[in-house]
From TrEMBL:
Keywords assigned: Signal
Pfam hit, one: SBP_bac_1
InterPro entries given in the database record: Bact_solute-bd_prot1, SBP
SUPFAM superfamilies associated with the record: Periplasmic binding protein-like II
Species the sequence originates in: Paenibacillus borealis
N-terminal signal peptide: 1-27
Protein name per the record: ABC transporter substrate-binding protein
Amino acid sequence: MRKIKGLSVLLLCFAFLLTACSGGNNAANNTKANATAEPAATEAVAEATAEPTAAPVDMGGRVIKVAAWWDLKPAGNSASEKERLAKITEVEQKYNCKFEFVNVPFEEFMPKFTATALTGEPFADIVIMEYNSAWPAILKGQLMKVSEYTTAASNINNEANLLVKAPKIANEDYAFAEPGVGGAGIHYNRDLFKKLGLPDLQELYASGQWNWDKFVEVAKQATKDTDNDGKIDTYGFSGWAIDMLRNFSAANGGKLVDEATSTQGLTDPKVIEAAEFINRLYNVENVVKVKGADKVGYDEFNTFKDGDVAMFPAPIWNLGDLTFDFGVVPFPNGPSGSPEVTYADNGKNAFFIPKGVKDPQAVYQAFEDTYDITQTGDFPSQEWLESIYAHEEDVAMMHDHINNTGQILLETAYPEYPTYGYMKDIIVDNQSVTATAEKYKPEAEASIAKLGK
């Protein structure tokens, strides 16, 4: 096990953005080939392989507003941040424009967007938006497709090393993002694994043994009364039950709701299989630590931080304050799943350009150019991952096996979608999963229909 030394911690806001960009385009990892042609052939090779470039546009001193619920302006704390600040100044002079980074509190962000979008004059030219918020806005015609503001000359449509197309929504490209690597997986307490003599999960994964059955086996081995006082001291698993349903369903090939077809997924056999598996963890094997009074409560999201839980689902941004050593593997695939999809990405956010923005091609072109700086590391967001994970194996696991395996899930975009009731009936009231799915099917369909109005 190789520990990473000399870690460089980036700003937390950058962590949020890169986590959100976990489905980044692989093209962003490409590097330009070295010029090795013979002198006589160099000009011909360059002409044959040159990519189109966009000509600068005089924007007449226009202010381009870029908004998020944190400060997107580089702080200048690192060499790359300083270089991007200099590039922004260069682009402002080149395009005769000015960038203004607007920081709007999260709870005010969507109301402000909605109010201004309805007037046809959005409060910002480029906005960071969660996919669950973007989907209703798309249905109302308030956001533009990437094809409406990029051209054949745009880097995003060529090398895509400056900005990349973010994952599709309803099979269409609406958003873009910084190149990045990330995602969600099963994290595990390496200290506790060593103490209890449990098999390393990365070794199980590498040997092809990491599946639901092995997950249960390890969880049972970790759930112990270590001091023989009649009380369980260590547990196999913990987490937010709704988050478990989303992720285990995705890892089994199921989806709670499909925005592309406007269909509910609670009755999908693959989702039902995942719900039955989760119920087994809670009520049959009894390997889940529940700290609060509500088994389905969001507070269980942080129960793993007590240090007595072996395995837990956690986004990367929630790992910064842990006091124990930890590792990561993908969510194990279920009987109906595949390695291409291992988790549900229900917290995705990215850049969007609203309808009503004037000269969107010029706005996008200028913004894209601000990212034309020296690329550091072997791949995008390497430095950030190394600031979170202490072992090279974990960074490699995230880069090679978890990145690009997220399923975009827009379940919370639908008003009163009955996921909570569905899980409560199953793991709290011990109701039949199949009967529960049929019970909540009409509510799920009504929720989908309500969003479409």
